[in-house]
């Protein structure tokens, strides 16, 4: 795979994890190697699961949920890095316990995280009727964010050039599979199970309304003062500076923030700075075909003038 000179240099430092397939979905090999244990993971009825396609607002929702559960207590939410507070059930970061080990050692009630498509979700979550929060992000911004995440995260394959990654994403040949299959699968399941389906763009446009939805779903009643505190502490600018939320505690040999920070922009519409006219036309055509027979719709820019300057 051809890389630009700059990208070639940034990817030569340190070895990256290999990848393989689980039921046709690309995954890092540590996930593949422990798939039987992941599939047989035993959820508890009071587990809360946060599910997303990668780079769809996962960390943001995790932090919001923690603040809701802590009723706005910032000290409590700063108790540990976010990857310690929320076991990532299918993941094995080289310097940490696996998500399975973290989850099994955690007392109830647990809040867990996954990027798995609904078809690969361990069956016990649905059998135990667990509450699940799903967050979806428009695919153009999701693609851009995931591309930059690949660049800095050595636990994922090198993305190649932007042009190459664009093709890989469209084809679903990226870790955790096709964006289309992911968001549609969870959308189709939401009315049969206890799934709250949220949109990244709605959260950017009206965080108070969406945080209230989350609190209600979780079973917490929060007054305006606490809601405003949560909005402040979970804003992009505050989280970007928070070492308990911004993954800066992860060693640079695994996540190199000098290549691209984990919390990069947090905006809606940054895709316009990456997509060529031809790519945008091609993407729109593909999107139109792939989303023609679903009620699921996305916004590619905010209705209000809330897009941060680039």
TrEMBL record:
The protein depicted here goes by the name Sulfotransferase
Q: Where does it live in the cell?
A: Cytoplasm
Specify the Sulfotransferase domain's residue ranges.
Answer: 45-294
The question of whether RNA-binding is a record keyword is answered with no
Chief location of this protein within or outside the cell: cytoplasm
Substrates-to-products reaction catalysed = 4-ethylphenol + 3'-phosphoadenylyl sulfate = 4-ethylphenyl sulfate + adenosine 3',5'-bisphosphate + H(+)
Q: What InterPro entries is this protein classified in?
A: P-loop_NTPase, Sulfotransferase_dom
Instruction: Identify the species of origin.
Output: Sus scrofa
Q: What is a single cellular component term in the Gene Ontology annotation?
A: cytosol
Question: What Pfam families does the record tag this protein with?
Answer: Sulfotransfer_1
Enzyme Commission (EC) number: 2.8.2.-
Q: What is the lineage of its organism?
A: Eukaryota, Metazoa, Chordata, Craniata, Vertebrata
Recorded hits in SUPFAM superfamilies, A to Z, give:
P-loop containing nucleoside triphosphate hydrolases
Q: Which family does the similarity line name? A: Belongs to the sulfotransferase 1 family.
Gene Ontology annotations of biological process type:
3'-phosphoadenosine 5'-phosphosulfate metabolic process; doxorubicin metabolic process; ethanol catabolic process; flavonoid metabolic process; sulfation; xenobiotic metabolic process
Q: Which GO terms describe its molecular function?
A: aryl sulfotransferase activity
């Amino acid at each position: 795979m051809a890389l630009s000179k700059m990208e070639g240099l940034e990817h030569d430092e340190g070895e990256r994890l290999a990848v393989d397939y689980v039921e046709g979905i690309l995954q890092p090999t540590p996930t593949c190697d422990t798939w039987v244990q992941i599939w047989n993971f035993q959820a508890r009825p009071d587990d809360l699961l946060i599910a997303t396609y990668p780079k769809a607002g996962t960390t943001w929702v995790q932090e919001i949920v923690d603040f809701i559960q802590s009723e706005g207590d910032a000290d409590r939410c700063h108790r540990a890095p976010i990857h310690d507070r929320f076991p990532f059930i299918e993941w094995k970061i080289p310097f940490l316990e696996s998500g399975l080990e973290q989850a099994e050692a955690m007392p109830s009630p647990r809040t867990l995280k996954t990027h798995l498509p609904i078809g690969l979700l361990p069956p016990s979550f649905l059998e135990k009727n667990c509450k699940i929060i799903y967050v979806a992000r428009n695919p153009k911004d999701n693609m851009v964010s995931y591309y930059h995440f690949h660049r800095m995260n050595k636990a994922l394959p090198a993305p190649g050039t932007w042009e190459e990654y664009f093709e890989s994403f469209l084809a679903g040949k990226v870790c955790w599979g096709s964006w289309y299959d992911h968001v549609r699968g969870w959308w189709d399941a939401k009315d049969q199970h206890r799934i709250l389906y949220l949109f990244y763009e709605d959260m950017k446009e009206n965080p108070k309304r969406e945080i209230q939805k989350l609190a209600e779903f979780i079973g917490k009643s929060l007054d305006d003062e606490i809601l405003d505190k949560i909005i402040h502490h979970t804003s992009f600018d505050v989280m970007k500076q928070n070492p308990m939320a911004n993954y800066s505690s992860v060693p640079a040999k695994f996540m190199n923030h000098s290549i691209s920070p984990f919390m990069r922009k947090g905006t809606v519409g940054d895709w316009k700075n990456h997509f060529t006219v031809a790519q945008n036309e091609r993407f729109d055509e593909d999107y139109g075909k792939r989303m023609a027979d679903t009620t699921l719709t996305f916004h590619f820019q905010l209705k209000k003038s809330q897009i941060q300057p680039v």
